[in-house]
């Protein structure tokens, strides 16, 4: 018995997104200590390379729409898969900072090429009723990628950091082949009417855009400083791969996001996700010397992180179904800038505030934003019922 349309698209998308986001996006930070030691790079050089990965990701986001308009919605996913393979191979064999930077930027761009493209593919190929489920499955592929990355990190402890990138290259090639096999080609997407296009999208998406600013900022703070918290405390370095695996395993619940949205609504799910991530940040900041508390924080974060990204894909497709990819891209671009600004702001605050208090402050921001979203949803229901808020 063959897979249904949502099953085929979901499986292929989960594989490609899992490699692009769950592996290629986070592998640089995971292997950074070993890269620094082997290649003798300064902190400045390592930081510049890390920043360059954002440029690759943003370029993929902005160019994916043009490629889709000319060659169909599947074309950006093929480009992204190719960038993932080539980038990971280059990093695995890099002997100089220049080659390392080229490989990391290429691999980092993969996420920009593929994620929003699947929103268009799903809305054009999958029946409407099955779309939330397919989008949730695709986004939750990141969890599988994180689990695989944690496994590769364990292998690298006994070998070389290059094994991690070699494994990513193999996974990216496999995912690209699965994508070509299961995802049908689509006709080139019609170019939208430019008159009022961007402004009308922004008007329809202002609540998801606000959510993206907070969500991506708090998530990147967690990923940026979780390993640093372990390093500064009394826990062994081997805990870091366990953290990544725990995030990935608990994040598998993200596949249920579509069903949960259909029951309680996208806005409520988004608010709950911000609350969950806030709780994980608070636990990490308050009890980082406890192995149990640290693992619990990772497990809680995995749920909020994966459902939080899945609900954004479902939410934007609900609000603007005829331009789902463009709507999702706007939120991702806003989130990308937020992801860059948040660590810079945190780095400026840590010397005077301290890492623990910073995590608590970020936690409070996430929790209050979740409450604000919930209150906004309540006010909308009151208005819809004919009563003044």
From TrEMBL:
It comes from the Bacteria. PROSITE patterns: MFS. The chain crosses the membrane at residues 45-63, 75-94, 100-122, 134-157, 163-182, 203-225, 237-257, 269-287, 293-315, 327-350, 356-375. Residues 10-381 form the Major facilitator superfamily (MFS) profile domain. InterPro entries: MFS, MFS_dom, MFS_Efflux_Transporters, MFS_trans_sf. It is found in: Cell membrane. SUPFAM superfamilies: MFS general substrate transporter (SSF103473). Keywords: Cell membrane, Membrane, Transmembrane, Transmembrane helix. It is a multi-pass membrane protein. This is YbfB/YjiJ family MFS transporter.
């Amino acid at each position: 018995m063959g897979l249904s349309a949502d099953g085929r698209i979901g499986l292929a998308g989960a594989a490609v997104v899992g490699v692009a986001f769950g592996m290629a996006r986070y592998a640089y930070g995971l292997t950074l200590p070993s890269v620094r030691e082997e290649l003798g790079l300064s902190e400045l050089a390592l930081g510049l390379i890390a920043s360059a990965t954002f440029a690759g990701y943003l370029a993929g986001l902005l160019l994916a729409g043009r490629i889709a308009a000319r060659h169909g919605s599947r074309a950006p996913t093929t480009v992204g898969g190719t960038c993932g393979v080539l980038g990971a191979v280059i990093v695995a064999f890099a002997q100089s900072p220049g080659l390392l930077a080229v490989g990391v930027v290429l691999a980092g761009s993969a996420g920009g090429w593929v994620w929003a493209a699947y929103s268009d593919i799903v809305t054009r190929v999958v029946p409407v009723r099955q779309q939330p489920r397919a989008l949730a499955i695709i986004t939750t592929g990141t969890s599988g990628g994180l689990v695989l990355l944690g496994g590769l990190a364990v292998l690298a402890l006994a070998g070389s950091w290059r094994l991690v990138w070699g494994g990513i290259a193999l996974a990216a090639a496999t995912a690209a082949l699965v994508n070509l096999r299961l995802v049908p080609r689509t006709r080139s997407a019609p170019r939208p009417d430019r008159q009022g296009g961007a402004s009308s999208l922004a008007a329809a998406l202002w609540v998801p855009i606000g959510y993206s600013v907070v969500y991506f900022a708090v998530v990147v703070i967690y990923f940026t400083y979780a390993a640093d918290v372990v390093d500064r405390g009394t826990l062994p370095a081997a805990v870091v791969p366990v953290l990544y695996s725990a995030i990935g395993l608990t994040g598998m619940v993200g596949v249920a996001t579509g069903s949960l949205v259909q029951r309680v609504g996208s806005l409520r799910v988004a608010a709950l996700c911000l609350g969950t991530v806030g709780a994980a940040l608070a636990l990490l900041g308050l009890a980082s010397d406890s192995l149990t508390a640290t693992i619990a924080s990772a497990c809680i974060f995995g749920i909020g992180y994966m459902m939080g990204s899945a609900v954004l894909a479902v939410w934007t497709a609900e609000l603007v179904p005829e331009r789902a990819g463009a709507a999702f891209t706007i939120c991702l671009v806003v989130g990308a800038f937020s992801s860059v600004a948040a660590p810079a702001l945190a780095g400026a605050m840590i010397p005077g505030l301290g890492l623990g208090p910073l995590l608590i402050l970020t936690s409070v921001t996430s929790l209050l934003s979740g409450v604000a979203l919930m209150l906004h949803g309540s006010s909308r229901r009151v208005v819809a019922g004919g009563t003044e808020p």
